[in-house]
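Bug #77: duplicate submission created two jobs. Keeping one. Sequence:
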Amino acid sequence: MDIKFNLNGTDYNVPIEVASYIKKLQDENSRSYKKVLVTPEMANEILQKLYENDETKLHNQRGKKNTAIKGYTKDMLEGKWQFCGDCIRFDTDGYCIDGQQRLNAISNSGKAQEFIFVEGLPPETKMVIDSGFKKTIEDYLKSAEKGYKLGATAIVRQVLTYLKGGKNIGNSSGDKGLTNTTVIDAYKADMEGYNDAAVYAGEVSKGTRILRKTEVGSIYYYLSYVEGIPQGDVQTFFTCLSKADINTPNSTNFYNKTAVKLCEKDCKGATRTDLLIKSWNYFYLKKRLKITNDEWKNKFADEKWFVNDDFVSNLKKEREEKKELEIAEAQ
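Kept job's structure:
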């Protein structure tokens, strides 16, 4: 079947297959590819065009991802943003269809950055952008760092989140404001420690419903490498929990009761973290102070990690002074 096809101002009758092929070549030839130093002023101009028809709705765009923008801005301000061939894409109408978050980061940081501009794409291209599988930090480190242990980056993110004042450790998605470069830098600063935590966490969590790999790894790293608790003590603590009997819900054994709660369906987030903190405090203080269960309930079931040996020493001293006072009063 022939159709009328206009080429350079002249109409031709050509088969529909030929017309489609010529149109495809024309579309491809209308595209341009160039490396551009994008200044904050350019970024603002491109972003402004997205609001051209409706100021309350971005043209053909998803909404702003403030967490991503914040992370990109931080990297740009710290000089960690690198040119890696990433593209800013524009459709045939001149609208940006990919790159909004990066452009906002350039605007916020006031720092110009280099990108490849791809212009002249069909508007429907937007439907397939960012729809595939993305590379993760772990994908990068597995190929770039010999000896990287699976799960180490999740542990890094959890530890950094907790050190920044996060409530949970090992039981949340971590601070999404942490940029990839921040996580990678932290890992590289202590590869041995994070890899050790990842390997140990894999061993402990394997075959148990009680403990999860990321929580074991992040707590193990925090207590051993940040607070300086002997690794043997931390490992003994996790052994007490991982070997607990979850089939005795009415058990009076502290670790059995805790393990049963950890296996409950709604035990997650802050609830789970608090249980683990209280379990550690019980283990830590029991070992050093030989406290009774009543003492534990009344005084030591706090929701912060007991890790300071000076604190324990002071408690021992307080006990000794109290005992001496009682003896003196009796005499």
